[in-house]
Amino acid sequence: MRFGYMIVACMLLLSSLMTGCTDAVQLETTSEVTVRESVSEPLRYEVISHSPNVQKVTFYSESLVKDMQFNIYLPIGYVEEKKYPVLYMIHGYGGSEDSWLPELGLDKSADQMLNDNKINPLIIVSPQIDNSYGFNSLSGNYSDYIVKDLIQYVDSHFGTDATREGRYIGGLSMGGWAAFFNGFQHPELYSKVGGHSPALFMDDWSNAAGLKDWLYPTEELRKQRDPLFLVETQDLKGFSVYLDSGDEDGFKFYQGAEALYQQLQSKNVKSEYHLFPGGHDNDYWSKHTRDYLLFYSGK
C-alpha cells in the first residue's frame, strides 16, 4: 500500500488529522454484476482491478450539486433478489472512498470472515466525504448528502435491507466523528454506529489549530454538533455503539472515546469500548478490521 503526501488545509491547518492520501487506483471497466437500474440515473461504476468484489460508483448528489463517488463491496454470492444489511464506513481527514475499500483491506477481511462463517453477508459502502466532517456547512450540505442522497441511491440500485435494523454507519478519525454526528442526529436511520479512533476532542486542541473555530464556532453550535453533547439530548435507545482507540493515539482520542462510552453507559445505551495497543494510523485500523466486522455483522 503506498501513501502520498498529506494535503495541507490552508484555512483550518488540519493536516495533522489526515490519514494518508494514496496514489490513484488503476481501474477496469468490466463486470458481470447485475444491479437495479434507476430511471433517472443508470448506475455508473468501474471495478477496482485488485479488488474484484469492490466497485467504484459515481453518482450525482442533489444536496452537493456535483458528482460524488463511493466504493461498494458486494459479498460473496451476492444476488440482487436478496436483501443485505448495509454498512457505511467513512474515511478520515485527507482520505477518500478508497481508504476502507480497498486500502485498509476491509473487503479482504469480509471475504475471509464470510468463508469462515464468522459474519453474516453484508454490503459495505465507503463514501467520499472530502474533508467536510460530514455536516452541513458553507463547504456544502454533506450531512444531507450522507443521510439522504447516498442512502437513497444505494437502496435504489442494490439489493439492500432498507430498514433501520439493516443499516449501520461507522468511520475512522474524522469519519468516526461524522458517523456519530449523523447517526445520533438520525437514530431513525441506523441501528449500529461505530467510531474507530473517533475525532472526539476534549479540551486539548493543540494538534488541531483552527478546527474548533470552524467545527464549534459557538457554544450553541457545539451542543448541536458534538457527539459528546448529542448523547445527552438524543434518544439513542435501541442503538448499538462501538468505540475503540489506540493507547498511543497522538491526539489522545482515547480520552473522548472513553468519555462518550461512559455517557452512553449512563443512558443505558448498548455500547462497548476497546483500548487497543497502537497509534492513530492505517497500521492500527487495518489490524482491527475483523473486530469491526464482528460488531457490525458478527454471528
Question: Sheet with the most strands?
Answer: 10 strands, mixed
Beta content comes to: 15-25%
**Major sheet: arrangement of strands:** 1-2-3-4-6-5-9-10-11-12
Structural class: alpha/beta
Molecular structure report:
The protein contains 10 helices and 12 strands. It has 299 residues and is α/β, with parallel strands linked by helices. Strands 1-2-3-4-6-5-9-10-11-12 form a 10-stranded mixed beta sheet, with helices on both faces. The protein has a two-stranded antiparallel ribbon with strand order 7-8. β2 (45-48) and β3 (54-61) form a beta hairpin. It is globular and about 50 Å long.
Secondary structure layout plus pairing:
Elements: E1 27-28, E2 45-48, E3 54-61, E4 66-73, E5 86-90, H1 99-103, H2 106-115, E6 123-127, E7 136-137, E8 140-141, H3 142-157, E9 167-172, H4 174-185, E10 192-196, H5 211-215, H6 219-225, H7 227-233, E11 240-246, H8 253-266, E12 270-276, H9 282-287, H10 289-297
Parallel strand pairs: 5-6, 5-9, 9-10, 10-11, 11-12
Antiparallel strand pairs: 1-2, 2-3, 3-4, 4-6, 7-8
Helix pairs in contact: 6-7, 7-8
Tell me briefly what this model is:
The protein is of the alpha/beta class. The chain has helices spanning 99-103, 106-115, 142-157, 174-185, 211-215, 219-225, 227-233, 253-266, 282-287, 289-297; strands spanning 27-28, 45-48, 54-61, 66-73, 86-90, 123-127, 136-137, 140-141, 167-172, 192-196, 240-246, 270-276. Helix 6 (219-225) crosses helix 7 and helix 7 runs parallel beside helix 8 (253-266).
